[in-house]
Specification:
Order of helices and strands: EEEEEEEEEEEEEEEEEEEEH
Radius of gyration: 20 Å
Low-confidence stretches: 1-19, 21-27
Largest sheet: 5 strands, mixed
Strand content: over 45%
Shape: elongated
Helix content: under 10%
Structural class: mainly beta
Number of strands: 20
Strand order of the largest sheet: 7-10-2-17-20
Number of helices: 1
Length: 271
């Protein structure tokens, strides 16, 4: 019997050498003719957050010219808040390129639902300037509740048996009741039409106890690369409240032939 492939992305994710990594097909790995930087931009998201929360984002960068020995980086058009803690983290070295993870934190400050389709990374190496829009981002931002009734202790996003992003994923959010009353977890929700959610409902947790709320997540209408933080709705003492669930991500693996196709699209193989 085939074992299930499990890739839990827990809490604030760490991209595993980054998931958007290359297959090691030696015969097709000659990219010596490519010059410049490739910023991977095929992302979609729904992120529920409180104002002034810090959300860690990680974006893969491929350097085919060893230009990142000196550079400046900006993340532009995040008009609902501020961008902090920008840094470039080395990951892997291949014969023809080096791979990095660009990390930064987004701190939303404006309450409401915000769709941002022009979030842009700008890298200036001194030799060249690179700009890339990094997908479609949906933020739902609320003011934080002044009282702490619960806390997220963990969570994960599990791949389906098939390893095909068109199938359902299992999302889990581990929750502790830190109040003095019983709470009832109602559901997890996502306000992005391309990310479909079927959530377990009505899980009661007594004071000083923990529970896990699960959901089926389908991302087949997206590019397959998703940042996700659902909205958790719960009730306590007859009052309905909401809280950000755990932040997770899914990134599809990029085999060498897909990387070459992407480089062709960007006209980088013709330089």
């Amino acid at each position: 019997m085939k074992s299930r492939t499990l890739k839990p992305y827990i809490g604030l994710m760490i991209i595993l050498n980054l998931l958007l990594l290359i297959g090691c097909d030696k015969e097709n790995q000659n990219l010596s003719e490519v010059k410049g930087l490739l910023i991977y931009g095929n992302w979609e998201s729904y992120l529920y957050a409180n104002t002034d929360e810090s959300l860690l984002i990680q974006i893969p960068i491929y350097d085919f010219s060893k230009e990142l020995e000196g550079y400046s980086v900006n993340v532009e058009n995040f008009d609902i808040g501020e961008v902090t803690d920008i840094k470039m983290v080395p990951q892997n070295k291949f014969d023809d390129f080096e791979q990095y993870t660009l990390e930064f934190s987004l701190i939303p400050k404006k309450v409401g639902i915000h769709k941002i389709n022009d979030l842009t990374i700008v890298i200036d190496t001194g030799k060249n300037k690179y700009e890339e829009v990094i997908g479609k981002w949906t933020f739902e931002v609320d003011k934080p509740d002044p009282n702490d009734y619960l806390t997220i202790t963990g969570g994960s996003l599990y791949e389906p048996w098939t390893g095909d992003y068109s199938s359902d994923y299992e999302y889990r959010s581990d929750i502790a009741n830190i109040s003095e009353r019983e709470i009832t977890l109602k559901h997890l929700s996502v306000k992005n039409d391309n990310i479909k959610v079927e959530s377990a409902k009505n899980l009661s947790i007594k004071p000083d106890a923990e529970g896990t709320l699960t959901a089926k997540i389908n991302i087949s209408d997206t590019t397959g690369n998703v940042y996700l933080r659902p909205k958790l709705t719960y009730s306590m003492n007859g009052k309905t409240l909401s809280y950000p669930a755990n932040l997770t991500m899914y990134a599809s693996t990029v085999p060498m032939d897909e990387l070459r196709n992407l480089l062709h699209e960007k006209k980088m193989l013709d330089k």
